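All the exercises in this workshop are built on plain-text protein records. Instead of coordinates, the fold is spelled out as a row of discrete tokens. Once this layout is familiar, the rest of the handout is easier to follow. The record below serves as our worked example for the rest of this section.
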Amino acid sequence: MDQAKKQSSPRRNTIAEIATKAGVSIPTVSRVLNNRPDVAPETREHVERVLKENGFIRSRVAQALRHGSSGVIDLVVPDLSSPYTVEVVRGVTEAMERTDLRMALSFTHNTSQLERQWLAKVLDGATDGVILLLARGQSKHLDELRRRKIPFVVVDHRGELGVDVPSVGATNWLGGRTATEYLLSLNHRRIAILSGGGTLRCSLDRIAGYRAALESAGIPVDPALIRPGEYIQATGYEQTCALLELPEPPTAIFAGCDLQAMGVYSALRARGLSIPGQMSVIGFDDIQISSMVTPTLTTIRQPLAEMGRMATTMLLRQIAQEPLDSMRAELTTSLVVRESCTALSAL
């Protein structure tokens, strides 16, 4: 009897109906709903179209919202000065379009005062859920949201999170290793890497991937080639200048993000050095400018908009009181080869 009731639950029947209409399996629909990466793009697009036509997410969320709810989802970001943040916001916006909820965008400018002001508004009951893209110091906010039973998802966390915190990120360790292995395949051995801050989890993971690639190739890690900084253009410029002053400068620079890579470009050109003729450069993120600069930037693609879409889907499922397949989702990074790297033998 219990098993029969379980099989006839509204959620299972709804997913089964979507699967039948889309001509795919129930697990495939589930993977699309959770934005899992193991679905072919054309299949994902088809299933999402069927979901939208049948109002699946909209209806489930609407049923779960209690009388007096705000009908608002909060998206909290530092600011919109970074193309990285803009891409995540774009993904959230696209996912929100198929719901009846509205998005409230809040800026913290990385200040504790503005974060406290935002939190006070949320605790007054002005939101049905929260997506957070915060730089630092968010653990106390998460504890308070959990205590008030406000659903939330963290995007690209900047510190250690508990296993019970819903979050979306990318395979930063794999991205760091992939970038370094690509430069190694071009015969580079003196490879520098620029960090994004000593405590940022994503930065630490990329450096760990970089170290793993060098160690696997039997190349000692030179601490002088691991440069501190922030994920800003100024770090790329300043640290490139410092690297060029080393007794044995690198032959390739792995920038922690594409904005840093723009700073690397500026520093190299100020010294009259050509890219990639005298220095190979690789970035991370694949923001729009990476395909517009000269030479176009080889980089590690981080699926930023997809991260925003997945975070929204995870939040909507929580609002609809549906269980998540996993509390942590990591989207795969990939190498995008363009014009900014060349084999060392060609120098």
The mean pLDDT is 85.
